[in-house]
Amino acid sequence: MSNENKKDSIDAEVVDTPNVEEENETTKVSESEENELIQLKEELAKCEDKYLRTHADFENSKRLLAKDKATAVSYANESFANDILSVVDSFDSALATIEATSSEESSEMLNKIKEGLDLTYTQLIKVLEKNHIKVVETVGEMNPDVHQAIMQVESEEHEAGEIVQVLQKGYTIKDRLLRPAMVSTAK
After folding, report:
1. The predicted structure's pLDDT at residue 120
2. Which of 2, 101, 151, 179 is the most exposed place for a label (fewest CB within 10 A)?
């Protein structure tokens, strides 16, 4: 064999034999890469969990805001309704006064005024009902959620706690109390 061939074969032998130190380094590198990969997977899982929680919070907030907006829109006319109730009260009083006049005092003109007031009052009540404003029922037992007892009176016709007289009508708008009915109850 020539010197060149010997040299090539020696180099080939050196290359072909694995070095123990290089193998350990490769193992160390792969172990550290594996540890880093595990850490990255844990961080990714934490980030995914954080994202899912944040997204759920956002969706809940969005849903609550939509609900609050719907409620605000639904009850936007509440202050207007409160203001118009005094007009309804005035109509109630005028009609009650006309009804209380004796037949001797009533004249044709008074009857025409009463008829006009009745028609206007009916129209006003229809408008209120169209806008979901309704009169609170005042028959039977007093309900503190919708009635306000102003006084108690003796009554043989009613049992204790029953409504004897309505002093001022109460109203609701949709399912919310606008104004409680002021009533007197039996002792």
Report:
1. 86
2. 2
Distance, CA of 115 to CA of 94 (rounded, Å): 12
CA distance 70 to 58: 18
65 falls in which pLDDT band (50, 70, 90)? very high
Find the mean pLDDT for residues 127-144: 88
Domain boundary among the residues 50, 73, 96 is at 73
> What does the alpha-carbon distance between residue 146 and residue 177 come to, in Å, rounded to a whole number?
7
Tokens of 96: 């009650």
DSSP string of 61-88, one letter each residue: HHHHHHHHHHHHHHTTTHHHHHHHHHHH
Q: Is the pTM of this model over 0.70?
A: no
Residue of 186, 128, 120, 124 whose CA lies nearest to 153:
186
Residue 185: per-residue pLDDT:
92
